[in-house]
Amino acid sequence: MSQYSIAVLAGDGIGPEIMQEADKVLSAVAERFGITLNRKAFPVGGYAIDNHGEALPATTLVGCEQADAILFGSIGGPKWDTLPLEQRPERAALLTLRSHFDLFSNLRPARIYPGLESLSPLREDIAKSGVDVLVVRELTSGIYFGQPKGREGQGDEEFAFDTMRYSRREIQRIAVAAFEAAQKRKGKVTSVDKANVLMTSRLWREVTEAVANDYPDVSLEHIYIDNATMQVMKNPAQFDVLLCSNLFGDIISDECAMMTGSMGLLPSASMNEDGFGLFEPAGGSAPDIAGQGIANPIAQILSAAMMLRYSLNQTAPADAIEQAVIATLEAGVVTAELLPASEQHRAASTSEVGDEVVRQLQRHAK
Ligand code: NAD
Ligand code: IPM
Ligand code: MN
């Protein structure tokens, strides 16, 4: 029997609420497919600062190292916003984990499912045009990690600086990830940059063009980030794979999430060259709705499906979860943020959505 160990890092805000639903779904899928998914929880983020003195305790890091995959919730919130940057949950825990495990390849799939166009805020004809975009985001370099980074000087002369830096090798490996993904999809890579202004973008274009030569069956186009954000609204069906640097991918993935209806629908996989990964919703800890039982658990549940697919090689259970999620949305069991004001009365809670996904999983069991 297949056995896996999963480090579960629920984190802050809505993190624990939505993780509980992913946990239910993993139990159901494990039972249905006869696999063992041993899950062990570890403290992370603001919760870990409050209870263990740091955002990423050593026991958590060791737990992640010993696991087959990391399932991550979300971290951060107003309580920890005033800490120095290097102690904040975002940098001290999440960026450290990404860097420690070299999770350079971040996949964020955004899709408007046929029949579910009404969830999208896009105009009906645009929502119905066949929207299926994969954001492939470079995750361990660029302006997030470039050195130097800091503040100097005083008074009006004080200044702050970040460094945007990319090596040929770093661009090459994320470009390869994008082309490989496009080969299994519609065969089109659109590389997002700001080559009219940035040196890093000029190198990005050069390297991407070179990688494209190895993939004659995949087409390559370049687009500036400002135009890209506009085109995602105007005509998202033109895109297949969007290849992005760290910061541009961060921005455009929130837009792609919203295009499908909610930040709470977009899962993500962050992988290294060995296939080890961290799986988390693209959205954050949502302090504005935390603690109310109304957060959408779908992105967390779909992140668990991506974990099964990409790190554990369990394709059938991953497919089953994705089908159960679509069936849940089709059944109209959705959280409040997916509904217009006039339909709020029929909003499901976080746990009702999780229960429905479990029910759909069991219903379709053979
Ligand atoms: P956010 O993604 O937490 O929230 C943005 C908006 O989307 C909010 O209105 C929120 O209610 C909504 N939203 C997000 N997830 C949702 C869900 N599952 N269901 C329904 N609505 C959802 O972004 P923010 O407010 O800018 O950031 C809040 C905190 O989260 C910050 O501390 C930020 O640094 C952190 N953050 C963490 C992660 C992560 O852990 N991976 C990702 C992004 C932001
Ligand atoms: C994301 C988040 C993170 C990022 C933050 C929390 C560091 O916004 O995963 O998109 O910017 O990468
Ligand atoms: Mn983000």
UniProtKB/TrEMBL annotation:
Site feature: Important for catalysis: Y144, K194
SUPFAM superfamilies tied to this protein: Isocitrate/Isopropylmalate dehydrogenase-like
Cofactor section: Mn(2+); Mg(2+)
Binding site for NAD(+): 77-90, 284-296
Binding-site residues for substrate, renumbered to this chain: R98, R108, R137, D226
Cofactor: record remark: Binds 1 Mg(2+) or Mn(2+) ion per subunit.
E.C. designation(s): 1.1.1.85
Start and end residues of each Isopropylmalate dehydrogenase-like domain: 5-357
Reaction catalysed by this enzyme: (2R,3S)-3-isopropylmalate + NAD(+) = 4-methyl-2-oxopentanoate + CO2 + NADH
Compartment(s): Cytoplasm
Subunit structure: Homodimer.
Name of the protein described by the UniProt record: 3-isopropylmalate dehydrogenase
Gene name of the record: leuB
